[in-house]
Amino acid sequence: MTQSSKFAPRVGFVSLGCPKALVDSEQILTQLRAEGYAISPSYQDADLVVVNTCGFIDAAVEESLDAIGEALAENGKVIVTGCLGAKGNIVKETHPKVLAVTGPHALQEVMSAVHAHLPPAHDPYTSLIPPQGIKLTPKHYAYLKISEGCNHRCTFCIIPSMRGDLVSRPIGEVMQEAENLVKAGVRELLVISQDTSAYGVDVKYRTGFWSGKPLKTRFTDLARALGELGVWVRLHYVYPYPHVDEVIPLMAEGKLLPYLDIPFQHASPRILKAMRRPAAAENNLTRIRRWREDCPEITLRSTFIVGFPGETEADFEQLLTFLDEAQLDRVGAFAYSPVEGAAANALANPVPEEMKQERLQRFMEHQARISADKLQKRIGQTLTVLVDEIDDEGMIARSAADAPEIDGVVIIETGIAPVLPGDFLKVEVTGADEHDLYARAV
């Protein structure tokens, strides 16, 4: 530890929630380091603690309130930011001793609160930070947030009330960040936002510049530009608008990972209408078949809600039929949770909790059979994987079909030449279960 960092004011940090919140945390940490603050790994050594919260569903609210309480008990000086801060006075009512509360995507407000309660040390030597900023992910992958907020008003969601309407980042700024990350050794960029395929709608696809060349602020143009950086590019939270078809050839050409994360949420037209889902009228099964014709290696991930108010057994059976026909590779599901402030709470015919859980179990068992069958077909194939972790028992890696934290992994046996996290490796698949693959290095 240098003399300057030894006496620098120290900030502890707790980051909860989704990758979009993680990016907010990274931006705050980057600014803290830029202003000479040291980041403390423990409550006891910190002069104050910042807690970045999640407030999307009841379980996340409870987790966030517990984290705030723990920080107060262990340290006593706590600043709260994130989505829970946008939900009225719940933080102050539960924990009146917190120093300040802000909403999400509130870098300047957080820094103002930090300045008020822990003034920065004026040392020019601690203001140096790497061009890519401070990251909370491993060095070889990073989330690239391209916009904030959302223009949709899905009845089960309160994100717009917390994060506002869609605000797209300038495309030159996004590409500069992506380039800085690649130069710093990042091998995989995970593109995220609330609605990735709507990127640029709010600025009418304004023309920006990258490396002196004009580039439209548009989903497909951004995807094409990112595909030129020579790293894995993975697209998350993509609504199935017609122009999404334009990125499938880029996947077939190897410019983008053949992977789409599309939150379908349901398959019953009646329920989708009640949810007010965008692109609900699209014939998704026809689109999926066409995507697989154009790019046979494509992996499709989605999330669904079961037990939405008014969901009948017929609606639920329609959802199971969709799973059979769509043959999605990766699927997550949730029982509907009546989030405070969501319009869906006022809908008629709420589904009893016991029935929600029963349908959720049937849904997951149904999809597990599909996933296991698809993974079994991978046995004998040779894949390129990205190594995440190495220990005495072997390596944990991911294929093009696996996003970190949410999908499966590829477990590789020991006994190969030295490999480091972030290395690409050729493997042969030797086994599979419902979620993961097992392999040996080629």
Give a description of the structure.
This protein is 32% helix and 22% strand. With 442 residues, the chain is an alpha/beta fold. Strands 2-1-3-4-5 form a 5-stranded parallel sheet, with helices on both faces.
Summarize the structure.
This protein is of the alpha/beta class and 442 residues long. Strand 19 and strand 20 form a beta hairpin.
Using brief descriptors, characterize the structure shown.
442 residues, alpha/beta, five-stranded parallel beta sheet, 13 helices, disordered N terminus
Please count the beta strands (DSSP E, at least 2 residues each): 20
Oligomer: single chain
- Please indicate the percent range of residues in DSSP E strands (runs of 2 or more): 15-25%
**Whole-angstrom Rg:** 23 Å
- Read across the widest sheet, the strand sequence of neighbours is 2-1-3-4-5
Number of helices, where a helix is a run of at least 4 consecutive DSSP H or I residues: 13
Provide the residue-averaged pLDDT: 88
Work out the helicity level. Answer: 25-40%
Structural class: alpha/beta
Which segments are poorly predicted (pLDDT under 50) over 5 or more consecutive residues? 1-5
Distance between the termini: 43 Å
The main pleated sheet reads as: 5 strands, parallel
Shape: globular
Helix and strand topology:
Layout: H1 3-6, E1 10-15, H2 19-34, E2 38-40, E3 48-53, H3 58-74, E4 78-82, H4 90-94, E5 100-101, H5 107-117, E6 141-145, E7 147-148, H6 159-163, E8 167-168, H7 171-183, E9 188-192, E10 207-210, E11 213-216, H8 219-226, E12 232-235, H9 248-252, E13 259-261, H10 269-275, H11 284-294, E14 299-306, H12 313-326, E15 330-335, H13 353-376, E16 382-391, E17 394-398, E18 410-412, E19 424-432, E20 437-441
Helix pairs in contact: 12-13
